[in-house]
Amino acid sequence: QFLMANKLDTAMWISRLFTVYCSALFVLPLLGLHEAASFYQRALLANALTSALRLHQRLPHFQLSRAFLAQALLEDSCHYLLYSLIFVNSYPVTMSIFPVLLFSLLHAATYTKKVLDARSSNSLPFLRNLLDKLNANQQNILKFIACNEIFLMPATVFMLFSGQGSLLQPFIYYRFLTLRYSSRRNPYCRTLFTELRIVVEHLIMKPSCPVFVRRLCLSSISFISRLAPTVA
């Protein structure tokens, strides 16, 4: 009854579980490397479906207008719909599957707990314990996802020069990264950029750091700071 009363949430729960399943079989290619590539695409397509359903839930009344598009781009679900479309037809990159896998795992775990509560307050204690441990590490998981989002930017550039990526991919991914940086619901990308900058500045200001390395890092920090969008 609980599942039937929340059909859209249930559909997203199933698609997230399928995303976790496909992502796991890509990261751990138990069925062979050839099959792993197909699971990579399935995971991203399932994530795209989940993101589209979530976006529909957040913005149910679609309008073909600039205002609606601007509003949609503020939603995290729209960001990851774009993310799935960027990588679904590209060369499989293990780094790109971790945000999809971990976000799906976190959201699926939250809804699984609701399903268990609807069934019985004491049902499946072992599973509840696993879900509680996952929830306790949520902040660390979100930071790891943000780290993946950031380091995928140079990875897309490397893929371009190695012949495994398209010319447009780094530019589209840069747009995705600016959306994540400006996210209202998830500040972890912004936080990680700040923390990385503090760590790098601390290291290069040590006397043992060569001058040319310090200048290169400072120039890089200045360049990346200019590219960062203004956050309200």
From TrEMBL:
InterPro entries on file: PER33/POM33_regulator, TMEM33/Pom33
GO BP annotations listed: endoplasmic reticulum tubular network organization; membrane organization
Membrane topology: Multi-pass membrane protein
Transmembrane segments: 12-33, 80-106, 150-174
GO cellular component, one term: endoplasmic reticulum
Protein name: TMM33 protein
Pfam family membership, one: TMEM33_Pom33
Keywords: Membrane, Transmembrane, Transmembrane helix
Family as reported in the entry's similarity comment: Belongs to the PER33/POM33 family.
Subcellular location: Membrane
Taxonomic lineage: Eukaryota, Metazoa, Chordata, Craniata, Vertebrata
